[in-house]
Structure formats: C-alpha cells, structure tokens
User: Fold UGSC-like domain-containing protein from Ammoniphilus resinae.
Amino acid sequence: MFEVYIPTGLAETKLKFPSPRLDTLDGKVLGLLDNGKWNSKKLLNEVQDILIKNYNIKDVIKWKKPNFSAPANRDMREEIAKKCDFVVSAIGD
Assistant:
C-alpha cells in the first residue's frame, strides 16, 4: 500500500509594494554592492562608469559582502539605505 502526502497548507502573506521610482539619477548617491564573486568588481566598475558618464551622479559608495552566498547583514543594509538614493548589486559570475 502507498501513502500519498499532499504538501499543501496555509501560508501567511503580507502585501509588499516596490519602492517609489526615482524621477532622475542626476544628483543622486549611487551605492554599489559587490557580492565578492570573481567578476563582480569589474561589472560594478563598468556600471559605475556608464552611470557617471550619462548622469550627474553626486557620489558613489561601495560595499562588499563578506560572503557571496548569504544576504547582506542588517547593519550593512541599513547603512546602504541611509546613505544611498539607489543601489546596484552584482553577482559577477
């Protein structure tokens, strides 16, 4: 005889809304979050160059995660949110 398990149930969900979009990148602070993989620094440097060339970026602040397989820790995320108007994160594979 076979037993069949049906993996269904109820899950609690919360509505989440995306952050409001910036009307322009001019005069904004760009955050770059490197996950530490091989080519992520190269990729982020290219993104930085393109954005600086095309927009009047006020400042660029860079961070590097200590572990590419884990999310950025809360302190890092909070610091990024306080200091930057927008962020680009790269994996660099």
